[in-house]
Amino acid sequence: MKIKAYKRPDGKYGIRNKVLILPSVGCANETARLISEQVQGTTYINNPKGCGQIGSSVELMHRTLIGLTLNPNVYGTIIVGLGCETIQAYDLYKEIKKRSNKPVEVISIQREGGTLKTIQKGIKLARKMVEEMSKIEREEVDISNITLATNCGGSDATSGIAANPTLGYCSDILIKEGATVFLGETTEFIGAEHILARRAKNEKVRNNLLTIVKNLENEFIRLGIDVRGANPSPGNIKGGLSTLEEKSLGSIMKGGTSIINEVVRYGEIPKEKGLIIMDTPGYDIESVTGMVAGGAQICVFTTGRGTPIGNPIIPLIKITGNKQTYEKMSDNIDLDVSDIIEGKKSIKECGEMLLQEIIDVCNGKLTKAEIYGFSETCIYRNQEIWCSW
């Protein structure tokens, strides 16, 4: 199974070709945005923090920002810092240079002498980088080079019956072809973690999986939080989901039936291929951003009630098993698999349809979120509970 992609100096392949303008701190967000808006071919990530963080939160942010620059869809990066932040722009630059030979530049607002001078220098650097990027052409490669992010949002009763099983079928096919698939949203493992644990490659993977769920539950208890109301959300309940356990049983179907080879932290690049569990929050935009930092070049996003979100680095393919949702939100959703519920098509048939859509998008077809230019990002910024692993 083949796709067409852009080869990177580190040997990885991207299905999109972008220069990333990356603020190391929230104080540099607007400067980075203004640079990106002036240069076609660039994209911009909003950084919610980068300063005033302590402990494992610093490690998480540092790891995620570096991971975003290493994503195969990114040709090169221009880091924009302020100069006095916790996550130092020049430290990020040095670490990226150690780990990759992709193009990377760094500028600092305080060092350059203010926003205007920083923007002017950033535009000059970005134009040069985009010009070099434009010389890269797609080449035919095996689909085993793909890492697929999976996510669900605005789930309803149709999600676990149609959309998630369709994605699970594709996940299994891609894994058989040698690709990598991320399954995240740890909150939505609760009540179904024992089922996932049976599929762990070994005892270590099994223990890591059960630990991230147990640690999350213990944190809810410690804080005196009742997760109900957040999960399932009011929209989930209105859509027919009664409990978190019911939601979890549907959610885990996105990962198909394959063996789980590794459990990784938020934004961490896995060492293994195949099915990988990433410890992400339930909030969709944070979850997808973590998988992008982990190296995903594309995401299939299942939804029952509908969602418009996109991402600046990777395309999001939206699928739904709810006919009414597709008819109401067809400008946001790429694929309707409600024929499964109506008995007109099987999960296999819809899975093959989704697989072809994935190949088409890898080869350059724009998703509806891309056509709109939607580019939501949010980096998880809580303290990590298991960062010592």
From TrEMBL:
GO terms for biological process: D-galacturonate catabolic process. InterPro entries: GD_AH_C, GD_AH_second, UxaA_altronate/galactarate_dh. Residues 5-133 form the D-galactarate/Altronate dehydratase second domain. Residues 143-383 form the D-galactarate/Altronate dehydratase C-terminal domain. Pfam families: GD_AH_C (PF20629), GD_AH_second (PF04295). It comes from the Bacteria. Keywords: Hydrolase, Lyase. Belongs to the UxaA family. This is D-galactarate dehydratase/Altronate hydrolase domain protein. It comes from Thermoanaerobacter wiegelii Rt8.B1.
